[in-house]
Design brief:
Length: 178
């Protein structure tokens, strides 16, 4: 599995990680509700259909598949990481097959920040990252936690004065700024 500390293996020696997060837990809400409704349907089928070994086995195994599906989706959510360095934006994901999507910050031409009512209440938002006339794999990042903080840091990295950003914490001469 791709553990959080392993994402650093994909960083270049000359780059520094600025932000590393996973999608907000609200991303899993849809899966929780669907799994709970499916399990409820299996319980109701078991209860109201005539007693039969076939129905008992069928509802049991369907419920087991639903729980296993939810477990896999939860693991995938847990290990997926969104990483912003001083040079690029990366999305690392996968259990068996690891994939790392990447967009250099130099290619970013526009950033858009969206926040729905649910996002304002629960603390997540969407970042839309556009590059020069191309659709990138990382053009839309939904369920971003702490979206204002991440948007500000990414904006400073992309559009800020060269070598002088709050996100990197450094001035042009390399002194730490606090």
């Amino acid at each position: 599995m791709l553990a959080p500390r392993e994402i650093d293996e994909y960083l270049l020696p000359t780059e520094r990680r600025v932000i590393r997060v996973r999608q907000h837990w609200a991303f899993m809400w849809k899966h929780v509700v669907l799994t709970a409704l499916f399990l409820l349907a299996m319980v109701l089928l078991e209860r109201y259909l005539p007693d039969s070994v076939l129905i008992d086995n069928l509802t049991f195994y369907l419920a087991l598949v639903a729980v296993l599906r939810f477990t896999v989706l939860t693991i995938l959510w847990w290990i997926e990481r969104i990483v912003i360095t001083d040079k690029r934006v990366m999305l690392a994901q996968g259990i068996i097959v690891h994939s790392v999507g990447m967009m250099p910050l130099g290619k970013v031409t526009d950033l858009t920040f969206e926040r729905s009512l649910g996002g304002r209440i629960m603390g997540y938002g969407t970042l839309i990252v556009e590059s020069a006339g191309q659709i990138q794999a990382l053009n839309r990042i939904d369920y971003m936690p702490r979206p204002e903080e991440i948007y500000e840091a990414l904006s400073e990295l992309v559009f800020g004065e060269k070598g002088k950003t709050r996100a990197t914490g450094m001035l042009a001469r390399g002194r730490w700024r606090r």
